[in-house]
Design a protein that fits this description.
With about 170 residues, the protein is mainly α. Helix content is about 70%, strand content about 0%. It has one domain (about 45-165). It has helices at about 25-30, 40-95, 100-155; strands at about 5, 10. Strands 1-2 form a two-stranded antiparallel sheet. Strand 1 (about 5) and strand 2 form a beta hairpin. Helix 2 packs antiparallel against helix 3.
Length: about 170
Amino acid sequence: MGLFLFGFPAAFAGSAPAPLVQASPAVQATSSPAPLSPEEVLSLRREFGRAQVTEFAALKHQQSLEIRELQASQAARRRTFETTEREARRRYFDSNREGPKRREYVQQLMERRRGLAGILSDEMSRRKKEHASAREALQFDQSQKRKEFLESLSRGVRPAQDLWPRS
């Protein structure tokens, strides 16, 4: 049938045959499992540790941005609540001039404020708990992967790619 170049018969290669490409040393090292040198082991350990620290820092940064965004949205909700309540209070006070009715309205207003504050506080605490559980899950996952990574290095084998932290 002919010479195969990269899995294609030579007849399909075109008029000028493509030059054979020599695999790079990095590809050759991974295709034939050669034991890792002590320098490579040390380099991989450092790089893996840095990658895990970076992954955790990225999660914390993302979570802090989410908290800031939540704080901004809650502040906007408070402002909206206060402006609508201020307008409603003025309308109510214009139509009701007696003290007992006004006191009752103000007490109801304070209850609505406390209700809103409770909702916003619960929302913030729930989000912070979710963030804490996500950080704990990441730390657990990282410790398991670190253990597998170090076991591979101790055997002198290049660790699997799926052990590396996500970007």
